[in-house]
Write a structure and sequence with these properties.
The complex is a heterodimer. Chain A is 47% helix and 11% strand. Chain A has 13 helices and 9 strands. The longest helix of chain B has 14 residues, at 26-39. Chain B is mostly helical. At the A-B interface, helix 3, helix 4, helix 5 and helix 13 of A face helix 2, helix 4, helix 5, helix 7 and helix 8 of B.
């Protein structure tokens, strides 16, 4: 498909970045055409449009495409490129990787030897402690970024600490958080993870005001909503960062935004993150890979290249609902990062779609039957 | 780096092609195989209904349960044969046979009034009452020269749907 586009528009890579792909916005039940005239038996028995839709979804669907990892283009396909590629592999695994591991270890040593004393000795001086901890968290995130030679270009004004504003970004991997965190110590809302990530969450990241939740716990939602509201009002709290997609998407699509971040009555500052897949696909497919494996993959690649745009802050317009607001912000981010929008909730990875969607299709079919029954 | 499609040999592909009476090109079969493996998350060699329903676009289809009954537990060869009715190369007869099979839930080659009513129920849900559905169906059946008691066979379906410009084609994305 992309080759087709390439033929039509020679400079499509430039254009694609700035153009929304609204045409891919799925119509619901649009395939059921609107024929006229009196209802005949063949009209009732002809279920081919709906069957075609079903078979089309079996063959290809926009939801699965959101979570598909892209394997890197192989380029080692000839006699002189192959040795070059082999050399690259040896270099990446035997020189680059150990060097990066050392950098990361040094980073942790520095971080922990400062963080622990600061955390325990400065108990009495909260303001100073918070400030130092913030700087240290930014520091360790910089070490992380260095450990995969992150080449990150930040565009737009750097976020500052102000109450009543919340940052929302598209989500590709947990490293989004690290990349944003190295510039500004955000307080992030995140799924509680198991293992060493969970340990970091509950010890270090707690100190910058991060909020954790369990996706499966219904009562967590209310608690998180309450915490969010409290946090966003506090004057000297770190700015809030939310990934409203609620799940990692492969950086080519964007799934529906959860409305939570848009109901706080705060200014919403969109952040768009676009990864360049030239060296490595930064998409973290948490079903296939642990986060440790994901990090190892990044640390053995040449570099992680990405662009971060801090975009124009947005406010709820009069008469706009939280859902419309969320969609508008998703538009802004998707256009900037060149993502295709799909009308699906990312949580469908874990659950089934609501019967509402099916009912809409049934309703449109029923209406057309009834209308044509009356026609003579 | 090998990907899953390289596991299909030319011999395999030809076998599948024969099984679906050449409804798909070799490239399309390779694509379908990739898709099949993607859907078959636990790698059991078949796609379970649970796995089909994880595709939201499929799960919201009003006829998904009916289609599921036909595709549940198919291996790749049967899966392609199932989809062959949607190929542009399939004949009108094959497409109508497929539709007939959707209606003929007990597979005895006859479609009863209730079979049609069931499908109509799936299509319209709560938006038309059961009585009204019966009434509509009876009316159009009679207008077409059948009655409530008629048992429709495949040739009836061919007669009814054959002239209605059936369009039932799915494009297999090929890269």
């Amino acid at each position: 498909m992309s080759s087709n586009q390439g033929k039509l528009k020679p400079s499509s890579s430039e254009l694609d970045l700035d153009r929304p792909n609204i045409e891919d916005y799925l119509p619901s039940g649009a395939s059921i055409q609107e024929p006229h005239g009196k209802l005949r038996l063949s009209d009732l028995l002809d279920i081919s449009p709906i069957l075609t839709e079903a078979a089309g979804a079996i063959v290809d669907d926009s939801f699965t495409r959101c979570f598909k990892s892209n394997s890197p283009e192989p380029w080692n396909w000839n006699v002189y490129l192959f040795p070059l590629w082999c050399f690259g592999v040896v270099f990446r695994y035997l020189i680059l990787f150990p060097a990066r591991a050392i950098v990361l270890t040094i980073g942790w040593i520095i971080f922990l030897s400062c963080f622990i004393p600061v955390h325990f000795l400065l108990k009495g001086n909260d303001a100073l402690r918070k400030k130092l901890e913030r700087v240290l968290v930014e520091l360790i995130c910089s070490f992380f970024v260095a450990s995969w030679t992150g080449v990150v270009k930040y565009h737009g004004p750097r976020p500052s600490m102000r109450p009543k504003q919340v940052f929302v970004a598209n989500h590709t991997s947990m490293i989004d958080f690290i990349i944003l965190e190295q510039m500004t110590a955000f307080a992030v809302i995140m799924q509680k993870h198991p293992g060493w990530v969970g340990l970091l969450q509950s010890t270090i990241l707690e100190s910058v005001g991060c909020i954790w939740f369990n996706r499966s716990e219904a009562k967590d939602r209310e608690i998180v909503a309450k915490k969010l509201r409290e946090h966003s009002q506090g004057a000297d709290n770190n700015p809030l960062l939310i990934f409203p997609e609620g799940t990692c998407v492969n950086n080519q699509y964007s799934v529906m935004f959860k409305k939570g971040a848009f109901e706080l009555g705060c200014t919403v500052c969109p952040v768009a993150i676009k990864y360049n897949k030239i060296f490595v696909d930064a998409f973290w497919n948490s079903r296939k890979q642990s986060f440790t494996m994901h990090l190892l993959q990044l640390m053995t690649s040449w570099a992680v290249v990405c662009d971060v745009w801090y975009l124009e802050p947005q406010n709820l317009r009069p008469g706009e609902t939280a859902i419309e607001f969320a969609e508008r912000v998703r538009d802004i981010i998707s256009v900037r990062a060149g993502l295709r929008k799909v009308p699906w909730d990312g949580y469908l990875k874990y659950s089934r779609p609501s019967p509402k969607h099916r009912e809409r299709k049934q309703q449109s079919f029923a209406e057309s039957v009834l209308r044509r029954l009356e026609e003579k | 780096m090998g990907n899953s499609s390289s596991m299909l040999t030319q011999y395999d592909i030809e076998e599948v092609q024969q099984h679906c009476s050449n409804a798909f090109s070799q490239q399309e079969i390779v694509s379908l195989y990739k898709r099949f493996c993607q859907l078959d998350r636990n790698g059991g060699g078949f796609v379970s209904s649970e796995e089909f329903l994880s595709v939201p676009e499929f799960a919201v289809n009003p006829l998904s349960q009916r289609v599921l009954r036909m595709v549940d537990g198919l291996n790749f060869k049967e899966f392609v044969a199932f989809l062959s009715a949607f190929s542009p190369r399939a004949t009108l007869q094959q497409k109508i046979e497929f539709i007939f099979k959707v209606y003929d839930s007990d597979g005895n080659g006859k479609v009863t009034f209730n079979d049609m009513l069931d499908v109509l129920h799936d299509l319209t849900g709560q938006f038309i009452s059961e009585n009204q559905r019966k009434q509509v169906l009876t009316q159009v059946l009679e207008e077409a020269g059948y009655t409530k008691e008629s048992l429709l066979v495949l040739s009836d379906f061919v007669k009814i749907l054959g002239s209605s410009g059936l369009k039932m084609e799915v494009e297999v994305p090929v890269d």
